[in-house]
Amino acid sequence: MGEQSSGSSNKNGKADKKEKVAAKPPAAESRTALVRRARRINRELAEVYPYAHPELDFDNPFQLLVATVLSAQTTDLRVNQTTPALFAKYPTPEDLAAANPEEVEEILRPCGFFRAKTKSVIGLSKALVAEFGGEVPGKLEDLVKLPGVGRKTAFVVLGNAFGRPGITVDTHFQRLVRRWRWTEETDPDKIEAAVGALFPKSDWTDLSHHVIWHGRRICHARRPACGACPVAPLCPAYGEGETDPEKAKKLLKYEKGGFPGQRLKPPQAYLDAGGRPAPPLGAG
């Protein structure tokens, strides 16, 4: 499904500018069909990104917690370039809790919003020392009490440092699950609940990685590479982006530097006999 035009004309007889119309969900898709389609998308993405993981570098729960807080409004690459110096100077919560804010700000300056982030990481370090003996807690209700830590950050830490399932609803995740018509919710907490109900709890952490990796590499916000997408036949929003396979291939972010663990096939591997991605499966 792609762009449609209204076909109307203005009073001067000139055709109105072509309008984009949001793709509609598969007609009369039942709850059972939605669950099947959602799980099939996740299986397809698991084959494309078999080693999907947090793209923040960390050696322990404390480092992951701090890195995730720093990743707000910046890239994981930028955070990974910044945290080695931070953790070399302040390797423990006790060290960061006692740090001079101005010195921390200087280290974090490349991450943007460095003053607010400095306040958060020093504040959460002080809270870890005062309330948890310098250890990162492994419970959601404890993590979200820390300065600068919300549910998204908490689930990243729980899922990847403690092995406890959680759904990470970042901007990529929100965009893709709405494009796939898994939910129409816009509030992150409601998205988390709606999507979580479609999958076994044991799938939640890996599902988050698969969706986020796909959003960063193929299903971009402005120009999704529909013509090179492995889940195009399952996507009711197919056509919102570039559908020509060769043009779409140029939009793939992995080609600009590469991403370990990614097994993207050539765009042609996802095409039908007519050279186009198959239409959405609908009731799949």
UniProtKB/TrEMBL annotation:
Cofactor: how bound: Binds 1 [4Fe-4S] cluster.
Pfam families xref list: EndIII_4Fe-2S, HHH, HhH-GPD
Keywords, alphabetical: 4Fe-4S, DNA damage, DNA repair, DNA-binding, Endonuclease, Glycosidase, Hydrolase, Iron, Iron-sulfur, Lyase, Metal-binding, Nuclease
Record CDD domains: ENDO3c
Gene Ontology MF terms in the entry: 4 iron, 4 sulfur cluster binding; class I DNA-(apurinic or apyrimidinic site) endonuclease activity; DNA binding; DNA N-glycosylase activity; metal ion binding
UniProt feature, compositional bias: Polar residues: 1-12
Region (Disordered): 1-31, 257-284
Main EC class the enzyme belongs to: lyase
Residue sites binding [4Fe-4S] cluster per the record: 219, 226, 229, 235
Gene3D superfamilies: Helix-hairpin-Helix base-excision DNA repair enzymes (C-terminal), Hypothetical protein, domain 2
Annotated family: Belongs to the Nth/MutY family.
Protein name: Endonuclease III
Native source organism of the sequence: Streptomyces bungoensis
